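User: We ran a pulldown and think these components assemble together. Before we commit to crystallization trials, I'd like a predicted model of the whole complex to look at. Sequences follow.
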Amino acid sequence: NAGVTQTPKFQVLKTGQSMTLQCAQDMNHNSMYWYRQDPGMGLRLIYYSASEGTTDKGEVPNGYNVSRLNKREFSLRLESAAPSQTSVYFCASSEVEGDDQPQHFGDGTRLSIL
Amino acid sequence: LAKTTQPISMDSYEGQEVNITCSHNNIATNDYITWYQQFPSQGPRFIIQGYKTKVTNEVASLFIPADRKSSTLSLPRVSLSDTAVYYCLVGERGNTGKLIFGQGTTLQVKP
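Assistant: Here's a predicted model for the assembly, 225 residues in total across the polymer chains.
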């Protein structure tokens, strides 16, 4: 039972390159989320998808795009990477959207942009 | 707007009970209290959630007084492997209305 799987686990990019982070969940959850975590800060929500076919901006969406490919998969794309996007990226899912819904997280993608 | 406050860090020793208190004076009637645990190099993991009184599971207990203005996460007999960051999420939302993760409490368990 894999839960939430993120690929790749590590990536180094040069400024201006593009990249897609992949996320898949096998729990039949409706809602999925992308966060970034920087040193000394909590997790910040980038985008979320309350259900298949919908996506919404989170707190820090600039520089990112997302695609809810199907119920299982939710990808995050950096079109033109910038050093400020160096971070650890976490994908999460929950059965449905709501404050009382526990989120299940992947183990993250560590992204460095030079 | 709810403001959640928890200690930045705590130290403990193996075998001790650890209590981490979260203050949320402006909690709303429909707010739940949710705790996550994050080990180094891993994503956060949901550990417990409650609305009022006491909730217990195999990992922790959550104590919530009647006024719900604070909550205490209790970890019985901690081990070195309980060293982690613990996040309390209660009604504090970002500009999108979604609950936000603060900086959490870094718990260091010593031998």
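The longest strand of chain B covers residues 18-23. That may be worth checking against your pulldown data before setting up trials.

User: Thanks, that helps.
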